[in-house]
Amino acid sequence: MHSTTSISVAGATQMARPAVATKSKSDEFVRIENVVKQFGDSTAVDNVNLSIAKNELFALLGSSGCGKSTLLRMLAGLETVTSGRIFVDGEDLAAMPSYKRPVNMMFQSYALFPHMSVEANIAFGLKQEGTPKNEIKERVADALNLVQMSKYAQRKPHQLSGGQQQRVALARSLVKRPKLLLLDEPMSALDKKIRQKTQLELVNIIEKVDVTCVMVTHDQEEAMTMAGRLAVMSEGRIVQIGSPSQVYEFPNSRFSAEFIGSTNLFEGRVVEDEPDHIFVESDELEARMYVSHGVTGPLGMPVGISVRPERVKVSLEKPAAPHNWARGVVSDVAYMGSYSLYHVRLPSGKTVVSNLSSSHLMSEGAPSYNDDVFVYWSPASGVVLTQ
């Protein structure tokens, strides 16, 4: 039985999908080897290697122009590979046209035919393949039932809500029984409230069918809510791969730390390095930073220390510990209901962000705008970044 991990992203607590257990080579379903995609002199995808397990829901996450959609389109056969190889279920897709691939893609626009009913939209691909009528009827009925849209079978797309249209597009993708389902920004057309509700609905539907899923998104919360594993991309390369909790709690670079959620990043240099701890001095802080694990590198090595806002405390009293604190002034307070977001300006000019729960503020007292305060965090809260 899998367990889920609670992750705070930009102040909102998300329940991450269960991480996929380590897979053996025989469980590998999608393999991308040294894939490069060039458009003229521009490299959109730069030597990407990736392995995805059977029945895994995997997310490619990154900002616009990072190469994630190009990689998805190469899987679908909508873009050719400049160099490298792509395998799906052991088959080399290099010479296979898109219409013969065991792959179906759900576009962010949904691309439903406006003049067709829901039922006809779902049946369209099967009719094009010459599937027998009785089989079409049965498979379409099963697909409608799967996405809970049976009672809307005769409606036209304009008579449906955005969330309902998305389910129809998903049913149309699944009715052809693809081995690999590709989702391109699947929630971008929905407003925030519907998007949050639909994310888990979509995952639950996908988990009911025997399909491996790769989704592309720039929305961190969407990737961390839906995916068992994700890859962070930047400038055509994969920066980090892991479960949502691994990537959030243990970023491997400044880019990952700042892209996934928000963080306080302190620049400094290692002044003491032991197997179980290091001390870091920073011009941005009065006190030394103490991190409860060692690093490999020479003394004086420049590092960044990432501390997530929910791990930073704010107090009117000076903390007892001799490290991991700074004095400052509250420059802004944003009340968000279950928590408040504090911005504390330090003498160095740096602003530290703290995410304090309402229950903590009720028990400890809530500092106000322009108050003199101290920010502090535990030795286990900092993550050392050398890249």
From TrEMBL:
InterPro entries: AAA+_ATPase (IPR003593), ABC_SmlMolc_Importer (IPR050093), ABC_transporter-like_ATP-bd (IPR003439), ABC_transporter-like_CS (IPR017871), Mo/tungstate-bd_C_term_dom (IPR008995), P-loop_NTPase (IPR027417), PotA-like (IPR005893), Transp-assoc_OB_typ2 (IPR013611). It is an enzyme of class 7 (translocase). Part of the ABC transporter complex PotABCD involved in spermidine/putrescine import. Responsible for energy coupling to the transport system. SUPFAM superfamilies: MOP-like, P-loop containing nucleoside triphosphate hydrolases. The complex is composed of two ATP-binding proteins (PotA), two transmembrane proteins (PotB and PotC) and a solute-binding protein (PotD). This is Spermidine/putrescine import ATP-binding protein PotA. The lineage of its organism: Bacteria, Pseudomonadati, Pseudomonadota, Betaproteobacteria, Burkholderiales. Belongs to the ABC transporter superfamily. Spermidine/putrescine importer (TC 3.A.1.11.1) family. The gene is potA. Keywords: ATP-binding, Cell inner membrane, Cell membrane, Membrane, Nucleotide-binding, Translocase, Transport. The keyword Oxidoreductase does not apply. Residues 30-260 form the ABC transporter domain. It catalyses: ATP + H2O + polyamine-[polyamine-binding protein]Side 1 = ADP + phosphate + polyamineSide 2 + [polyamine-binding protein]Side 1. GO terms for molecular function: ATP binding. Its EC number is 7.6.2.11. It comes from the Bacteria.
